[in-house]
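Section 3.1: Structural characterization of target chains.
Under the original work plan, the team committed to producing a structural model for every single-chain target entering the pipeline before any wet-lab resources were allocated. The record below documents one such target. The sequence was received from the expression subgroup and is listed exactly as submitted; it comprises 288 residues.
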Amino acid sequence: MAEPLFWKLALIAAEPLLFWFGFRWWRRARLIEDTPTSRIRSAAQGYVELSGRAQLPAGSEVLSPLSRRPCVWWQFRIEQKRRSGRNTRWQTINSGISPTPFLLVDETDTCLVNPLGAEVFPADKSTWYGSSPWPNSVEAGFFGRFAADYRYTEHRIYQHERVDAIGEFRSLGGVRATDAEQRSAELLRQWKQDQPGLLQRFDENRDGLLSQKEWETTRRAARRQVDTTAIEAAVPQHHVLGRPAGDQPFLLAACELGQVARRYRWWARGMLAAFVVVAGVLAMLWLG
């Protein structure tokens, strides 16, 4: 009597989870499809999608921990075989993910990608087996998996591999229009304090007043002076892509993000189909 009740309660608890995951993955697919790909140089500040080639900053080197292969990003997992009676399962005993930023380069500019917190879809994966908690080699013999006590899995993104990314984009340094406007206004206030000097420079008809046309000339001169000074003193502009502050996904994929969106749609359909099936089973259990 207790067993049917247990399954009823388990199915009831599963229903909101199935619906939540289905809705979440469907929303992610729509978000990817509705976010156009931007060029790095002209990308707006905020949530954007970029596409380019992965590179390491000059002088940097990244080696994957298990296979020691050069790459720009890695993730690994080491599992140990655990036996309980006739049952065997793999339990994770060690894992890690690359914290090192890498560059994303397109035909217009370069962007530094901070991969921390990203959901990554790498193209390359290796799985092999061994007898020690840390691999001594990258050998994956066919029969080794049956006798080995440890399983090693490693994902990698390589130098010059295509990467699509969607996340929070920020530009640091350079000359910003808002800063220039504020400095222009401040410079005009300084010029106004020296009325004789202001009239000497910009009162073309020498009537002792600045007409609307003469005032526009004054404003343009202030802006030119501010722009010239800012360009000479400006720090080179750097672009950074990282994890958004809100609940928007941060995704890195060694493929087109459209493929990731299709994968999310299939997952969403599976969860929503399971939601409907479980609802039907619950109805049969309660009515039966």
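The two ends are 14 Å apart (CA to CA).
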